[in-house]
Amino acid sequence: MGKLYDKLTEDYRIKEGLKACINCGTCTAICPAAEFYKYDPRKIVDIVQSKDDHEIENLLKSEQIWYCGECMSCLTRCPRKNAPGLVIMALRNLSMELGYFVESEKGRQQYALAKIISGNILNYGYCVYARTLKAKDHPEAGPLWEWIEQNMDDVYERNGANLEGEGPGALRRIPQEDLDQLKKIFDHTGATARIEAINRYSMEKAREMGLTPDEYFHHVFNNTEKEHLNQ
Amino acid sequence: MIYQGKQKIWSDYQKEIPDDHYFYVRSCIRQNLFPASEKTFLDITRNKLGKDFFETEHHTTCGGIAYHCDTIPQETSMTIIARQFALMHKYGYENYVCSCITSFGLYTETLETWHEFPELEAKIKDNLWKTCKLEFAKPKYLAHASDIIYKYRNLIAAQAKYKLINKKTGQPLRVVEHIGCHYGKMFPSKSVGGAEYPYVLAGMIEAWGGEVIDYPERRHCCGYGFRQYHIRSNRGYSLSNTHKKFESMEPYKPDMIITNCPGCPYFLDRWQYVISEMEGKTYGENGHGIPVFTYEEVAGLVMGYNPWDLGLQMHQVGVEPLLEKIGIPYDPKEKYKGPGGKDIGRPELPTCGCL
User: What pLDDT is recorded for position B11?
Assistant: First the structure.
């Protein structure tokens, strides 16, 4: 039994999501990611249950583990009630803990995700926040979002929100004492340590790639260099 | 009641949803993209139906998007959730209702994991006290906001001014319903109808006069995929999944789409815009898109709310053809007005202006 496998089994998502895989491939058949990316959850689960540390390390450094969309359609259909999606979450967790995530293009995107999503939680108390949604980063949101961005206070007031207001309501200003509690939770439960680890490994990688922190952010957010697609 | 035969099988897929007294928590995505839907939910439940739905400004995100983007550990999301439940208890409630499918899935996952691993529950309880000095509690009942509208669907029908019926032909509108993956795929027994026969939106459609469309990719993901959308260079994943759904539903000629999730209405709406810009293709009648709604928006429409009070101007795909089919009056000049009728301009038209 390998050390990486032992580390994985400490994760409750492995305890919940991996019983005994019979390798039937039903998860791959139902998986939206497997249709789009060069991705096969059946193979990934099989590698994990092989307990082969060398293969698991390759997996932790690979593009594959970042292709899943965590829709959990696999869980519904697995005849043994495994959850390949939960196995993926445990693999991603360990990949970030060991710094292996920067070895893959899709893994390096964690730097931007942590900045955007975890940043929004700590600053505003929301995972997504209108003031930080910029039309230039979201061309798919169309001319409608450009109009909303330009008239944000009026549009949200008209639509019944309480943008940056006191008291309850949509997009209210969450009181500072509540944001302080979120920060304490982050510090106590490992989220702050995760942000710091992601930043540390990412900045080492940025230096190796000859990029400033800003350039690295824009690179991982906007660019796809390798051929990931299943076609 | 004693159930037998098919009734018994169907009873396994039912939820006994409490009638009243809920602690209400909002959705990160819906607050930003469909804030009027949450306003409508509270207006219908509190003011039209006289129910008790309490909200406090002290609740926050559940952390679900961060959890599924893998930027926070499981222990962090569980402690944030424990804090939300503790607020419910502090304000004297036992029934918890969330406005988000991602939250609903994560709350369910958390409660099930605590049930299976009591030592983890004990650790989270300890985390909660050390970080927030709050008393640990769990809800007696966990609902998604659409469960509530489903529960009240016949009360809403009783107050309805309009039905989901084509005014000209007298035929029921043909409606696509999109459930959202984390509502019933992970823990089928916690959803109305389970993963095999999800009925939460179909029940509303039938109660309000429409006809549910079955099509091959009915249960396929909208393509949100968390990191597959939030990172710009991954969005082809999201677009491709939505595209697959629209190609599959197109032959069935839907009049409208009703969605369950916070993200799904956004993706099914905005990717139609992108497909029309990229390929010049639209999926509705006469070159229009297929309008996409939240369940509160549809409840509001049948109850006679002003479409612009429901926030339908925050959709990229125009809803006017659907309003006209039902016979709901609207003032096009009001559509993009600010508060008190203030002129704040209007969005530019997409290249495919009829969308």
Answer: 74
Distance (Å) from the C-alpha of residue A152 to the closest C-alpha of chain B?
A: 10
* CB proximity list for A48: less than 8 A, separation 6 or greater: A5, A8, A14, A18, A56, A59, A87, A91
Q: Which residue of B has its CA nearest to A34?
A: B237
Domains and CATH numbers, chain B: 18-145 (1.20.1050.140), 160-341 (3.40.50.11810)
Instruction: Calculate the CA A53 to chain-centre distance.
Output: 24
Q: By mean pLDDT, which of A21-35, B185-199, B228-242 is the weakest?
A: B185-199
* Distance of residue B19 Cα from the nearest chain A Cα, in angstroms: 23
CB-based contact, B118 to chain A, within 8 Å: no
Domains and CATH numbers, chain A: 3-98 (1.10.1060.10), 107-222 (no CATH)
Chain segment B99-128, per-residue pLDDT in tens: 999 999 999 999 999 999 999 999 999 999
pLDDT at B204 over 60: yes
B273 touches chain A (CB under 8 A): yes
